[in-house]
């Protein structure tokens, strides 16, 4: 499970870079679905890791940050789509 957590953290880092670059790949329907699945898998990995170690904390912070970015992206999309 720790290996999955590290892979997810690297994927979350990659998503953060794509988010900063405003990549159309990330904001496509498929990109958003994969992004959401990665967030869910991150929280599942957090629950499955029983040891109180740094990996558990990092996957929680990483998944929480990804959820924050998803919410911010949704709010930005709502604001832009409501403009005349």
TrEMBL record:
Keywords, ordered alphabetically: Membrane, Transmembrane, Transmembrane helix
Transmembrane residue ranges: 30-46, 58-80
Protein name: DUF2768 domain-containing protein
Organism: Gracilibacillus salinarum
Phylogenetic placement of the source organism: Bacteria, Bacillati, Bacillota, Bacilli, Bacillales
């Amino acid at each position: 499970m720790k290996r999955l957590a590290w892979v997810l953290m690297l994927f979350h880092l990659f998503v953060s870079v794509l988010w900063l670059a405003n990549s159309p790949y990330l904001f496509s329907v498929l990109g958003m679905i994969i992004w959401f699945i990665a967030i869910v898998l991150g929280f599942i990995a957090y629950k499955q890791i029983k040891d109180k170690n740094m990996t558990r904390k990092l996957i929680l912070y990483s998944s929480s940050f990804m959820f924050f970015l998803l919410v911010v992206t949704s709010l930005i999309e709502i604001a832009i789509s409501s403009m005349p």
